[in-house]
Amino acid sequence: MEEKFKSGFVSILGRTNVGKSSIINNLVGEKVAAIANKPQTTRTVIRAIVNRKHSQIIFIDTPGIHKPKSKLGDVMVENAFEVSKDVDVVVLVVEATSNEIGKGDRLILDKIKAAKKKTILVINKIDLVDKARVAKLIDLYKNEYDFASIIPVSTVKNINLDAILDEIEKNLKEGPAYYDIDEYTDQTTRQLVEETIREKALRLLNEEVPHGILVEVEKMKRRKTMEKEPIYNIDATIYCLRESHKGIIIGKNGSMLKKIGTYAREDLEKMLGIKVNLKLWVKVKSDWINDAKIVKNFKLSK
């Protein structure tokens, strides 16, 4: 008897910096979400598509749950909870290094309980602790909610990641493929370029700068060189909150901006499959994180 095809939407919830985006990128096999060792790296709701033999899983990576300190922060947290109302399965990601269910995890757990969502608990970063500590955390969460399954994983060591897909597939219903099998995200090329540049800035800049950064692609044009090789000309602007931040982003004699551009270009050439000519500018856009016109672009469409 032929196995029936399943499909469904899965939201990944968790506090900031627990590794949600790393898990998605590993499962998809492509970079669809910015990764950096900084909180609030993901700002928008990102769809990532995993096509399997008998299923299509559409992951929705949401911004990390945190205490909002701006209009942008309000929208990020609202998006994270709003998108989880209509999914088929929720994946809750927590850190193995936790000794208890903290305030952020408790807030998410309460939302899941209220919605009575089918939920898989993923305990990430098990490579950092011993098995006894993981077992204690499993017992702690088992007493809180009837999870469909609990999976300890490590994105760094690539431990148990396939088990996440297997468990999700078990919990999906029969349904059609919503996207072509060649697609792995619903983001536009422009959005992927902006996210790539922002990720490199997040990785390289000082703590006080990254979350005041907004990247906008001004121009993307594909052309051929004199040698008839295809190349993308990309012009992008990095906006920041203050003049002092602008100086840090540019760096001495332009060194930091050059480094951001070099790392971004290398990733973009892999992603686009052709050479990239990337030009970056830095401008100040004061308090843009509280500008309603800008922040509305991050708001989840209904």
Describe the model:
The chain is of the alpha/beta class and 302 residues long. It folds into 2 domains: 6-174, Rossmann fold (3-Layer(aba) Sandwich), CATH 3.40.50; 189-298, K homology (KH) domain (GMP Synthetase, Chain A, domain 3, 2-Layer Sandwich), CATH 3.30.300.20. 34% of the residues lie in helices and 25% in strands. The protein contains 9 helices and 10 strands. It has helices at 20-28, 71-83, 103-115, 131-142, 161-170, 189-204, 243-250, 255-272, 292-295; strands at residues 6-14, 46-52, 55-61, 89-95, 119-124, 149-152, 173-174, 214-224, 230-240, 275-284. The strands form 2 sheets. Strands 1, 2, 3, 4, 5, 6 and 7 form a 7-stranded mixed beta sheet that branches. A 3-stranded mixed beta sheet has the order 8-9-10. A hairpin with a 2-residue loop joins strand 2 (46-52) and strand 3. Helix 6 (189-204) runs antiparallel to helix 8.
Largest sheet: 7 strands, mixed
Number of domains: 2
- Give helix and strand order, one letter per element, not per position: EHEEHEHEHEHEHEEHHEH
Shape: globular
User: Can you tell me the CATH superfamily of the largest domain?
Assistant: P-loop containing nucleotide triphosphate hydrolases
In short:
A hairpin with a 2-residue loop joins strand 2 and strand 3 (55-61). Helices cover 34% and strands 25% of the residues.
Key terms:
302 residues, alpha/beta, Rossmann fold, GMP Synthetase, Chain A, domain 3, 2 domains, seven-stranded mixed sheet, three-stranded mixed sheet, 9 helices, 10 strands, 34% helix, 25% strand
